Amino acid sequence: MNRPELLARLLIIAGILLAVGAPLYLWSRTPLIHARMAEAGGWTPDVLQAEVGKPLHLKITSDDVVHGFAVGQMDMQSVDILPGKVADITLTFDKPGTYTFYCTRWCGLNHWRMRGTIEVSGSLSDPSTRSGQRPEPGAVPLYVSLRLDLDAPHDAPSIPPNKPSAVNGQQFTDELPITNYQFSDYYRSHSPYQVFTDLSTTPLTESQRWDVVAFLWQSNTTPESLVNGKRLYAQNCAACHGENGGGDGVFADDLTTAGESSMQTMAGAMDMAMQAPTDFTDPRRMLGASPALLQGKILRGGMGTGMPMWGSIFTEEQIWDLVAYLYSFQFEYHP
Amino acid sequence: MELTRLPLLKSALKSRYPQLAVFIVMLVGYIFAILAGLIGTPVGSHNFSIVFVWIGWWAILILVAVPFFGRGWCAVCPIPLPGEWLQRGAILSPPDKKPKWLNLRVPKMFRNIWLQNISFLLLALFSSVLLTTPNITGIILAAMLFTAIGLSMIFERRAFCRYLCPVGGFIGLYSQTAPIELRINDKQVCAKCEGKPCYNGNEKGYGCPWDVFPGGLTKNTYCGLCMECLRTCPHDNIALNLRPFAADLAKPSARMDEAFKAFIMLGSAMIYAGVLLGPWGALKDAAYNVGSGAWFVYAAAFLAIIFVVLPGTFRLMIFPSPIGRGAALSPSKGAGVRAFAALSNSLIPLGLMFWVAFSLSFVLTNASYIFAALSDPLGLGWNLFGTANIAWQPILTSILAPAQTLSLVGGLAWSARTAQRSAQEAHVSSVPVVVYCFIVTAFMLWLLL
């Protein structure tokens, strides 16, 4: 074999090895977390490991549409994960435990299924840095201690003719013994309808009693809570329940259709209406529900209805903010 | 004008080294594109395989290479190279006398471009998926490479390029319009030449890989511009010429495989414009959801438009009366078929300009993806050249509609002129062909604008 031929062969072999070897090597050295719509697999991998106090560097890319990344019960801004782009995220955990990471963009009908876990090992690095991170396990939610049956019907037997007004209700409160109703424990464990009933001993008309209930509900929250609840609702709930709470979010029709098709295989075992997102503007439903009941539904989820469980995502404070905001679909609060 | 009179150019073309350097770059790029398709991000707009093949390469091919250099791409295409090198047992050295592999002749029934028509249509039917899905692109690129290798082991010369390559078929068709040609200087020299080394090879090079005897070349369609004949010709009788555009169409071909290629390309450009650029979501869904009922309807419609509607209408227009159609079939059936095939050559310039107009649209829209894919070809978060974060932005959008209009109207005028000449040769009127071209151009204008 002459020299030019030998050189040509060597060059070609080197070129092929370079074309194959270099990208394969670099590819194998760049582990990525892939985000795909839940129907296509969700997060891959969906279980991550970390150690307390050691930064966890993540490179995340989307293989299809825009997703978002956030870790539940952690004080962090969600990060957009763009198709074909790589987002670099660094997390540091100061407490051991199992954390849930989830998609924060409405990526598809099963968006809420896009969840994974981060298993953080080690011991508590600094006991004083608990704020903003998940609470100690073992704290019993209010709906559990009250033994509420989350799936039992809870419709209010009667509803107000108009949206009750907190402004109107406030003017009656000076003359009424309502101090007990203003305690947080009372508010959280009673539905508006129960308070409306308790107020039946007063000389107020039904309409006035509903206005007082509206005032009590507003006095148990703050403008900051409502703003935070509204933000959480817009980010996480409106896709199904609708921007205005009417159960008519962008995925509502698809959820209903999915519910109908699932009925065909489940031989009527599940109430078809359960698949449709709850209408928070329905007074019969909302005025019969206590804050604790709503907390339970958010924490636990809808158990097969399409409503995800948020217990691993939201902090307790965030859930109460959200609950407070949900009642704003029923009551006219003063600014 | 004979370009090979320029000493520098001639020696560059005769030498194997410049070509080899280009070959190596192309082959490395091609293999990298396969790999990027298979292991890179599945997001097409950020994957090297999609961006560089279907945006970068396609733009160069259809907007520059084919219109100005004909089969210029085939001269540097990496797909046949590994097979050809294995077939020869060498890269630069002269071939052995004894073939290393089966070295069979391609059966006569396949020595046409029907297989290329079919392979193009197969890809065209899946194009919505192919053009957007990196791993499918990677698989197809790899399949073409290995098919070319396999065919080189079985058949002589470049059987894949000549008879099967889905791209080579239309490049050959449209290369007739290019202002460049490889021809002989003196027929008598070729007639007297012993051994015909340009076809059979000698110690200076290989016999024509494209199975063409340069002495008989009258059109560009099957000459791959590989320059082997320039190296092997002992009489310095091979020339690379500059010429007027579309010179080959002055003497139109009467082959039905080439005639149908013209309809396939014309129809595909229109269908692509409708599917990929049009506002019809249902049509896009049907084209994308391969295997669904809607896709089968789409595929059937695609084939019907290309094989029935377009050629059928053309035939009815050029032979409008039953007597005329009868004459086309019998007793002078051959003459009628030849006239049909010859007149369909008039559609070649129009088809090319359809593709130019269509390609301008998506190339200008998507060209900015090239910068990001250059720096991060696999979508792994790299930024090799600092361009990874350049955002997508359509470019030169203000000139798009005028450029497309100019292309289509220019193509119409070009085809009309070609039709006049073809009709004269076929002894029929050119008016129906011009009207046909006008109708399809108006339709394409509506689709694009």
List keywords for this structure.
heterodimer; A: 335 residues; alpha+beta; Immunoglobulin-like; 13% strand; elongated; B: 449 residues; mainly alpha; Alpha-Beta Plaits; 3 domains; 4 strands
Name the helicity range of chain B: 55-70%
Largest interface: A-B, 29 and 29 residues
Radius of gyration of chain A: 26 Å
Q: N-to-C SSE series of chain A?
A: HEEEEEEEEEHHHHHHHHHHH
Main beta-sheet annotation of chain A: 5 strands, mixed
Q: Which stretches of chain A of 5+ consecutive residues score pLDDT under 50? A: 263-274
Number of helices of chain B: 22
Structural class of chain A: alpha+beta
Name the strands of the widest sheet of chain B in spatial order. 1-4
**How much β-strand is present in the residues of chain B?**
under 5%
Q: Distance between the terminal alpha carbons of chain A, to the nearest Å?
A: 91 Å
- Biggest sheet, spatial arrangement of strands of chain A: 3-9-8-5-6
Q: What are the low-pLDDT stretches of chain B, counting only 5+ consecutive residues below 50?
A: 326-331
Write the layout of secondary structure elements.
The complex is a heterodimer of chains A (335) and B (449).
Chain A: H1 3-28, E1 33-35, E2 43-44, E3 47-51, E4 56-62, E5 67-71, E6 79-81, E7 86-91, E8 97-102, E9 115-121, H2 142-145, H3 166-173, H4 184-189, H5 192-198, H6 206-219, H7 223-236, H8 238-241, H9 252-266, H10 283-286, H11 291-300, H12 316-327
Parallel strand pairs in A: 1-4, 3-9
Antiparallel strand pairs in A: 1-2, 4-7, 5-6, 5-8, 8-9
Helix pairs in contact in A: 3-6, 5-6, 7-12, 11-12
Chain B: H1 7-14, H2 16-39, H3 48-69, H4 72-76, H5 81-88, H6 114-125, H7 127-130, H8 134-154, H9 159-164, H10 166-175, E1 180-184, H11 187-192, H12 197-200, E2 201-202, E3 205-206, H13 228-232, E4 238-242, H14 256-277, H15 281-288, H16 293-318, H17 322-329, H18 333-344, H19 347-366, H20 369-375, H21 397-426, H22 431-448
Antiparallel strand pairs in B: 1-4, 2-3
